[in-house]
Write a structure and sequence with these properties.
The protein is α/β, with parallel strands linked by helices. The protein contains 12 helices and 12 strands. The strands form 3 sheets. Strands 4-5-6-7-8-9-10-11 form an 8-stranded parallel beta barrel, surrounded by 5 helices. Strands 1-12 form a two-stranded antiparallel ribbon. Strand 7, helix 5 and strand 8 form a beta-alpha-beta unit. This is Aldo/keto reductase. InterPro entries: AKR_Detox_Biosynth, NAD(P)_OxRdtase_dom_sf, NADP_OxRdtase_dom.
């Protein structure tokens, strides 16, 4: 029976001209004041074959740190080891303002990009994504601002995060520089992109998919608890963990490797964003490439998530 196999070989990031690893590392919980420890995490991601690094200007307050703290810490890592910047495709996001909550007005988008450049200490962000859609911003105005920032060389490519397929298509229709990526929540526990048109639109348009929280907001993680977790599993999580564990035993890997691999196996070739901040577990993320699926095995995990047979 034909199996779906995975490869660590780099692939295009949509039509951006950028080449990236099939997995990314995310910096939502990248914080603190220890630059050496921060650098170790970055280097662990490189050692795992990861070249796409995803942060955002809003990353900080969730760690009881200031707005922009994650970018600022990464900038300090770059200052200590400048060569690391040149080895990665650097992605960030903006458009969320504390207390607003969303602002994609032309003036603020430009302000957000330039502030991120300053915090990171770089001249260009390779992929800049609108973090959440601003319903009061016309996509033509958003596109014109982002196109200008691309022309100026401040950002290399444009992406979106947490946009519906219709919102994604509306912005893409006005972008002359093209839309490189979309970033939905997608995991064995959050399967909406399979059914709401997100992955279908990405395949139609040739857009890369970056999957945030591929471990179901930490609920599928092993030995890497996050603050606020530890709640009893609901029926869905119990079913999915059992299905993942059974498949993991077949390949001698842990549950998280199978969870990443399940996301990656879709033909849209989603790029899971590894969120762990533990170097050993960042390294273990590469075990996902050891996993393969028959169609029956992949669908069995989906059925476990849905709690009912497919029609």
């Amino acid at each position: 029976m034909t199996e779906i196999t995975l490869s660590p070989e780099p692939r295009p990031l949509g039509k951006s001209g950028l080449s990236v690893s099939p997995m990314a590392w995310g910096m939502w919980r990248f914080g603190g004041d220890d630059v050496r420890a921060a650098r170790e995490k970055v280097e662990a991601a490189f050692d795992a074959g990861i070249t796409l690094f995803d942060t955002a200007d809003i990353y900080g307050p969730d760690n009881d740190e200031p707005f922009g703290a994650s970018e600022l810490l990464l900038g300090r890592v770059f200052a200590e080891a400048p060569g690391l910047r040149d080895r990665m495709v650097l992605a960030s996001k903006g458009g969320i303002r504390m207390g607003v909550p969303y602002d994609s007005s032309p003036a603020y988008l430009r302000e957000a990009v330039e502030a991120s450049l300053t915090r990171l200490g770089v001249e260009r962000i390779d992929l800049w994504q609108v973090h959440r859609p601003d319903m009061l911003a016309h996509p033509a105005e958003v596109a014109a601002t982002l196109d200008a920032l691309v022309t100026e060389g401040k950002i290399g490519a444009v992406g979106v995060s947490n946009h519906t397929p219709a919102q994604t298509a509306a912005l893409a229709a006005h972008l002359t520089s093209g839309l490189a990526s979309t970033q939905p929540e997608f995991s064995c526990l959050a399967t909406a992109p399979l059914f709401d048109g997100t992955l279908d639109l990405a395949m139609q348009a040739g857009t890369a998919v970056l999957a945030w929280s591929p471990l179901g907001q930490g609920r599928l993680a092993e030995g890497d608890p996050r603050p606020g977790r530890g709640k009893p599993d609901d029926a869905q999580a119990t079913r999915v963990k059992a299905a993942l564990d059974a498949h993991a035993a077949k390949y001698g890997v842990d549950r998280t490797a199978v969870a990443y691999a399940w996301v990656m196996a879709h033909p849209a070739r989603p790029i899971p964003i590894v969120g762990t901040q533990t170097p050993a577990r960042i390294a273990a993320s590469a075990d996902a490439y050891k996993v393969s699926f028959t169609r029956a095995e992949w669908y069995a995990i989906l059925v476990a998530s849905l709690g009912e047979d497919l029609p």
